[in-house]
Amino acid sequence: MGDFFAMGGYAAYVWPAYAVAALILAVLLAVSLHGLRRREATLKLLEETRPRRRAARHGNGPIAHGPVAHGPVAEGPAADRARSPAAEGGEG
């Protein structure tokens, strides 16, 4: 067992390298957990202070139930031309 810890005479280099690597991993873990907790707190605050968009738009309470019966929404230049007065027979 002593031979293992001596690392073939390189223990003075190997064990500090392991210590530095372990320290870096511990710091990364701590920073990650801190960021996670901070983002969870931000999310909780946003969820408490802002109404859900679908629920606020339809007045269904905090959660909208069931599918919304809306047709597809056309966007873009083709949709703009289709909605133009010229497409409806007016001046354009």
Tell me what you see in this structure:
Helices cover 62% and strands 0% of the residues. It is an all-alpha fold.
Topology:
Elements: H1 2-6, H2 11-49, H3 53-58, H4 77-83
What would the keywords be for this entry?
92 residues; mainly alpha; 4 helices; 62% helix; 0% strand; single chain
Contiguous low-pLDDT stretches (5 residues minimum) are: none
Mean pLDDT: 79
User: How big a fraction of the residues is strand?
Assistant: under 5%
Q: Termini separation (Å)?
A: 91 Å
Secondary structure: number of strands:
0
User: Main beta sheet: strand number and arrangement?
Assistant: none
Order of helices and strands: HHHH
Helix count from the secondary structure assignment: 4
Short description:
The chain is mainly alpha-helical and 92 residues long. It is 62% helix and 0% strand.
